Amino acid sequence: MIKSKKLSKIKNLKHGFFNSKGGISKNIYKSLNCGPGSRDKTINVKKNLEIVRKKIKNSARDIFLLNQIHSNKFIYIDEKYQFKSKPKVDAVITNQKNLPIAILTADCVPILICDGQKKIIAAIHAGWKGAYKGIVDKVMKFMLKKGSRPQNITAVIGPSISIDNYEVQNDFKNKFLKKDIRNKIFFKIKRKKLYFDLSNYVKSMLLKNKIKKIEKIKIDTFDFRNKFFSARRALSLKHDDYGRNISIIMLN
Q: Which 3-state string (H, E, C) describes the chain?
């Protein structure tokens, strides 16, 4: 479990960015695969999620997961929220204690957010589509509407694919330049190939919302030495599926 220095300073807060180590899954899912959407054995995923829950806090409620769809949609959980099926959204915000909220990634950017004054937390799944569609903006604007102030918000960008391994095509770049010509700074050409800096693009969205307390955990999920699940690495190895990393946060 990797912890953020900034979030660790906030009282009554638990969090962690988990890699693939410490679970019970086998083969390509070895070992802490937390993805119910993978083709791993359901029982193994459930046991892995239980391992994570206990590491966060023994008495924590069940981990609240999303049905992630690469959108700009989010959900807010307050005391009135009715727990039914997993919502089809890509971010979750809550003010509820003892409720671990989490997102799953396998190269996309996980963002964990806390307003230590208002006691509101959020977890965001930011793949390129969600980031492009404004998922970060939407979450920030909602938190500000709830009374948060930018200076009280801490945002941590977790392990994700680095620019060195995120190869894209020209039409991908054109899409971002059409939205804002300044986005060209997030692309680089190396050995005649084009690469995209997803994590810094996400960081720019936080800065645009006047968030100053930002921490970026510089760990590349594609690099097998870091022991994270990676969709792109799985594709390059011709695997037919891949495990999911979990990033989790909870008010104590």
A: CECCHHHHCCCCEEEEECCCCCCCCCHHHCCCCCCCCCCCCHHHHHHHHHHHHHHHCCCCCCCECCCCCCCCCCEEECCCCCCCCCCCCCEEEECCECCCEEEEECCCEEEEEEECCCCEEEEEEECHHHHHHCHHHHHHHHHHHCCCCHHHEEEEECCECCCCCCEECHHHHHHHHHHCHHHHHHEEEECCEEEECHHHHHHHHHHHCCCCEEEECCCECCCHHHCCCCHHHHHHCCCCCCCCEEEEEEEC
